[in-house]
Model the fold of this input.
Amino acid sequence: MNKTLFDKVWDAHVVHTITNGPQILYIDKHLIHEVTSPQAFNELERRNVPIFRPKQVVATADHNTPTVDQHLPVKDELSRKQLTQLSENCAKNGIQLYQLGHKYNGIVHVMAPELGITQPGMSIVCGDSHTSTHGAFGSIAFGIGTSQVAQVFASQCLLLTKPKSMRITVNGALKKGVQPKDVILYIISKIGTNAGTGYFCEYAGEVFENMSMEGRMTVCNMSIEMGARGGMIAPDQTTFDYVEGRKFAPKGEEWEQKLEYWKGLPTDVNAEFDKEFEFDAEDIEPMITFGTNPGMGIKISGHIPTREDASFEKSLKYMDFQKGESLVHKPINYVFIGSCTNSRIEDFRVAAEYVKGKQKADNVTAWLVPGSKQVEQQIEVEGLKTIFTEAGFELRQPGCSACLAMNDDKIPAGEYCVSTSNRNFEGRQGQGSRTLLASPLLAAATAIEGKIVDITKHLN
Amino acid sequence: MEKFISLKSQAVSLPVENVDTDQIIPARFLKATNREGFGEHLFKDWRYNKDGSVNKDFVLNDDRYSGKILIAGHNFGCGSSREHAAWALSDYGFKVIVSSFFADIFKGNALNNGVLPVQVSPEFLEVLLHTVKKQPKRLIEVNLEDQCITMESSDHKEHFEIDNYKKTCLINGYDDIDFLLSKRAEIELFENQRELARVSD
Ligand code: SF4
Done:
């Protein structure tokens, strides 16, 4: 039978199928962090059940960590307690933790691929919806709730009903200035925030084939924003080159064996999907969102649509935008380049290339938050730090930061923030904050100009 | 987990679409390390104004409305995977959430906490949202055994779908961990076979 990439990886992990019920799916790697794990540890303790496979669990501290003075004790008492609890839980159960300050610490979806923990053909879960990021390697990766974190602790498995499969194909060549972030914002603006609910999505076509691993991760990261449980891209030479040689990547004979297996994973030519979408790369332009869900995006040169619908109007009211207006020239006081969507080295290279030799506008507070210690270091080694500092940007320490504003990095009420993160929900970046999602390129340009610009006109 | 068989209660209507988990429980309340007490912060930024005063226009602050059933617009529970959203709803006292569409992860989280997500047709949802708003005392019955939701003293009744396995779990009050623990031998066998296959390749 012809199988999809998703079928192949899923089926290889099925331990048992319950008649008329869910399947038991084996989990290769379980990533955890401080916010969604404590209650799961408590649950196992309450039941007196040990962690089944602690060696397959990897922990990091990222959601609730400060992005300045990480060498000092964490000021906020509750945050400090959460971090201490993670350290204690990991120590007690023999789980590898990359805690705050560790050279491998970082946002869970940035540090795991970087260390070669993420590999093609794996099943990966984490108590975080953007676990879909890891699908960029051709793995099945998805977010889970805390009860499920406890299930994986107890059995290294989950009870799941197999999702349906969908494919989004984008062929052609992207125009100048169009970033991977624009591609995914464009797709979500076309198909909506729940087109993917109940599905696992494969991204196929020339655009993704020609994309770097960083770009593929940005795309897969936002699969959840169209409701899909996960996104996947077939592993190819780009994937193998990225994984090879990383700390936890297979070596020697094991590498050869795995490589052989990975090469057989791409979707068979005649395999069928439950749902398909196709787009042309030529139609995609730099994007920005104007509303309070990631599907409310427009081309930077476009105008806010006119729609009669209560939810749409509520959203515009929150953002204080009018139907039919253009966002170009809107003054902006905050810019955030970071989050597991866009905080990899490539994102900072794109931003630095634009920023080089220019000055940040006086009205703008611009936060750059690398996704991991390794990215932070790379920014310095490549000389990007100097470019940013000279231009007046603030380079902070790694973490989730203003993506969810659990720490002190909050956008004040009523302020607009052009952000490279993935969610523009009401209050996501701080109570009353207004988020406009965009690529690192558009975010960097906004910081320089102090207002939103039509980036296509600013590229020579 | 508490058993769920059927429930008859007044309901609260929240006619908002795409209610995301950041609204259900804002991130700043996720610093706790236990599951209790989240009800206090449910829909925090809608219940309270920016200056901390009570937002009288929000339905949970309207004395006329109460009950164990929340009726909400399309695509309820989208966004973050935080199970704190399900804990907050349950801790506040909601046992059933009715909508015309639920986000995947939220649905699973709710079921794992004994909160029943009932997916109804958009038409039936409209009727429920409207009637409850106009007649706060109207009782709604949710019967899990029959998989039926009924509006009392009316012809409005609808069947809803639920995974058979999950239904059994809820009715008996047991959860996935119990089940998975009972399958450990099979899981170990799976691990060994995979290892063997890899080595003999
Ligand atoms: S950066 Fe944002 S989306 Fe990513 S893991 Fe952290 S909080 Fe979640």
Remarks:
- Chain A touches chain B through 67 residues (CB under 8 Å).
- The mean pLDDT of chain A is 96.
